[in-house]
Amino acid sequence: TLICCPNSQSIFMLSSPGPPATVRSALVSDAARIAELGAHVFSASFGHSVEPHELAAYLKTSYSTAAIQEDLTDDFKDVLVATDANDQIVGFGYLNCGSDEPCLANVDHKVELQRIYIDPGAQGKGVGSLLAKELECLARERGFRNMWLGVWKENCKALQAYERWGYRVVGGHSFTIGSVVQKDLIMLKSL
């Protein structure tokens, strides 16, 4: 059973054998681990597609501890983390209510699922699904009726997960890292 409690911890059993995962609001003190995990997962997923110096520059601006601390204090963003039985962060996800896309101009009451990153050792155990469900619950509590995201068209693993979670492709946009312009798909889900 999913318990929507953004101001308290929600405990879920993972879909495969293992300890329970706890989903909670991120704290500013979590910034260094979120930055480390974000940089690791981003590099593993996209590092092969860009030059090393361009990747390093992107990580410095988007996944530094200071950048994550700024995100955690941004009134337009909500960040949740999933922790394992040892209280180690094994995943995180963002809601961003301050973003939009042209292909979503006629969609009311929307919010972006900006990031959902899972530690490779916790992938395939339901952590991503748990975070997604809790982020959706939080979005509904805040009055949003639609959730959208951008995903690199070559990130097949993520695309499959988003389709399983009920998202459908409604458009696209360019995502630039240094001199590389990648094509992202915009996906939308009704809450």
List the helices and strands and how they pair.
Blueprint (H helix, E strand, L loop, with lengths): L9 E3 L8 E5 L5 H16 L5 H11 L2 H8 L4 E7 L5 E8 L13 E9 L8 H15 L4 E7 L3 H9 L3 E10 L2 E11 L1
Parallel strand pairs: 5-6
Antiparallel strand pairs: 1-2, 2-3, 3-4, 4-5, 6-8, 7-8
Task: Explain how this protein is built.
The protein is of the alpha+beta class. 32% of the residues are buried. Strands 1-2-3-4-5-6-8-7 form an 8-stranded mixed beta sheet, with helices on both faces. Strand 7 and strand 8 (180-190) form a beta hairpin. Helices cover 31% and strands 31% of the residues.
Entry summary:
With 191 residues, the chain is of the alpha+beta class. 31% of the residues lie in helices and 31% in strands.
Which runs of at least 5 residues are low in confidence (pLDDT < 50)? 1-16
Main sheet: strand order = 1-2-3-4-5-6-8-7
Q: Provide the β-strand percentage band.
A: 25-35%
Q: Using the alpha-carbon principal axes, give the shape.
A: globular
**Mean pLDDT, as a whole number?**
89
Our measurement of the CA-to-CA distance between the termini, rounded to an integer number of angstroms, reads: 17 Å
**What is the number of helices?**
5
- Given helix and strand content, the structural type is alpha+beta
Largest sheet: 8 strands, mixed
Helix fraction by DSSP (H/I, runs of at least 4): 25-40%
Give me the count of strands: 8
| Succession of helices and strands | EEHHHEEEHEHEE
Radius of gyration: 16 Å
